[in-house]
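Justification of resources, computational component.

The compute hours requested in this renewal are based largely on the per-chain cost of generating structure records like the one below. Each record pairs the submitted sequence with a full structure-token output. That output is archived, and it is also reused by downstream analysis tasks.
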Amino acid sequence: MFSKLRKNTSTYTAMLVGLGNPGLNYEKTRHNAGFMAVDKFCKTHGITQFKNKFNALVADATINGNRILVVKPQTYMNNSGEAVGKLAKFYKIAPENVLVMFDDISFPVGVLRIRRKGSAGGHNGIKSIIAHLGSENFPRIKIGVGDKPHADADLKNHVLSNFGAEDLKNLDAPLERCVLAAELIINDQTDKAMNMYNG
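The structure output for this chain reads:
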């Protein structure tokens, strides 16, 4: 488990969550970087069987001996915590063992930032998860998607805009690094993941 300070009473070592908006219209938008990372993780590990539970797509997988839940909330971004909170409660997964991957406009496209915990930083999906878990103490992998093109640009329009072809190409390697970082974190090697993949 991620936290040695709190005993995990669940049969699952971890919950891996990717944030995004459901539907083809949002598939290649900046706000869906978390979904893209989870999809890459699933492709890498041959995870194909998802079921609908608590308004989320949920898969059961075993990674390096760790049983995990892979989750893609279907609530739309701003209400992501509704699904994550219900799943964590149902499966008795502590917040410290919920790993969330999501977009961040603070960094250039493809730059990763791994943190053990922290505030929402203005991200509504994370804000919702904090509210429903009742804690900020969950690890996260932030995926840089680039800032607004200019100060007066609308933030909502920016994060809901599609990645350009070049940006999508440049995301391939960072998404692979997300998978490797997630594997380490799930295996209780967060410091190693931070040292290897931050920046």
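The two ends are 25 Å apart (CA to CA). The longest strand covers residues 56-63.
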